[in-house]
Amino acid sequence: xxxxxxxxxxxxxxxxxxxxxxxxxxxxxxxxxxxxxxxxxxxxxxxxxxxxxxxxxxxxxxxxxxxxxxxxxxxxxxxxxxxxxxxxxxxxxxxxxxxxxxxxxxxxxxxxxxxxxxxxxxxxxxxxxxxxxxxxxxxxxxxxxxxxxxxxxxxxxxxxxxxxxxxxxxxxxxxxxxxxxxxxxxxxxxxxxxxxxxxxxxxxxxxxxxxxxxxxxxxxxxxxxxxxxxxxxxxxxxxxxxxxxxxxxxxxxxxxxxxxxxxxxxxxxxxxxxxxxxxxxxxxxxxxxxxxxxxxxxxxxxxxxxxxxxxxxxxxxxxxxxxxxxxxxxxxxxxxxxxxxxxxxxxxxxxxxxxxxxxxxxxxxxxxxxxxxxxxxxxxxxxxxxxxxxxxxxxxxxxxxxxxxxxxxxxxxxxxxxxxxxxxxxxxxxxxxxxxxxxxxxxxxxxxxxxxxxxxxxxxxxxxxxxxxxxxxxxxxxxxxxxxxxxxxxxxxxxxxxxxxxxxxxxxxxxxxxxxxxxxxxxxxxxxxxxxxxxxxxxxxxxxxxxxxxxxxxxxxxxxxxxxxxxxxxxxxxxxxxxxxx
Length: 582
Description:
The N and C termini lie far apart (106 Å). The protein is built from 23 helices and nine strands. The longest helix has 34 residues. The protein is mainly alpha-helical. A five-stranded mixed beta sheet has the order 4-3-6-8-7. Strands 1-2 form a two-stranded antiparallel ribbon. The chain folds into three domains: 294 residues, no CATH class; 87 residues, no CATH class; 92 residues, no CATH class. β1 and β2 form a beta hairpin. α2 packs across α4, α3 packs across α5 and α9 runs antiparallel to α10. It is globular.
């Protein structure tokens, strides 16, 4: 056997060993993160919503997100002893009741809920592993095995993938399924056949079951296919490919409807009850206004909608949130309601390691190579939906809260960055090492990761809060800190989520909204910048300790009035009136 062939065999063997090592490392990182963190704000709502599907076939709870991930997460919980509390459930209510059900679930199970959420998290690990595998396969097929290893490496050590991949929220599953769908569609475009048709349709259907945003692919895929067909019509069959594309879309819709047990599928458009202005005609707030339907008197109302009813009404309710607007925080400024067009672009930059951004820029430069450019063109089924998502997200300026909404951009960054190894191997390895080092330096606090451009996660609260920093994941660390310092009493926790602290074993009271008694105060950095300003008094105080990157510990020696600026102003006015009266 020639020396060249031996080198190729050894190279492939090293890549396979490297890939196996990345999978083992990623499993370890995500699993430990799932075990050591408390249930987060959205998770407490997802789990009972998943249980309601498996026990009652009811998809209405948390309908703003499709059901696949929470359904999978609920499976192990139903196999073990647990408590349920459905007392706040209202079958006909349009108000989002998942938060109340989540609070009830945690309170009913107490500290046992920690074990239940850990089980639910671990069973969702394959979603993240799938995304890493597709990154490897697609990059390997387009460029080289080494490039595939690089794409998998960036996924493996991504703090965003690790942090959110260890939760039962649908964000990483949606990234993985959207990536899988883009890859299978590109393979069908390249070589249309019944097998590529089936896998493309199946993957699109699964993507739709993770995040409703992927409904855009039902429009984007025909557009992309038509443009590709026009560019190479001589070697393609219009009739055959048109029928196959219809088959892909029909299969995807059937998979989506099957995931909802065909509940409400085919309902006439006029029979829906909508609240968003886009679908009702004017914004109508659930619980305050009756629903409407702008299509009820139109011929369009007679069209049966080939989507599950709860999928459609979920999109409508999600649209209400964006139209109504909510408070947003960005770079030290609060808008209530309001937002910024650059929020997601800047947020994505701050949440991705600088080493990954360097690889991405190097990959863009590498496209100057004709061979790489011709291969990179095949990434359009991934890049175009990502660009559309960034445009849509950036245009929603009435509410900016979660950078995770644009996480589907991450695989595009990784696959483009992987091309860098084809031109600058040593430098690319160095940048991948920087990515891993930056991520591991913060681990296991990956949810609170911010890159070094702003000084790391200790400075993150000055730019972004909420799920970008503190989603309640460190409440177990708060519990452990209090247990290590039993002499520090009384203790108070400043956190504004829906989780009962004592249900998780946190022996402390919530901070009073009127006065701060002498004692120890563990204050969430996110809550400190809440627009209510109820914890603003801690902004200029020096903490005596910190817990992870989300809580600061303060000591108050004497009672202090805890008043918001409005309350302080009202207090001054009252005192002034009393002075004048006397």
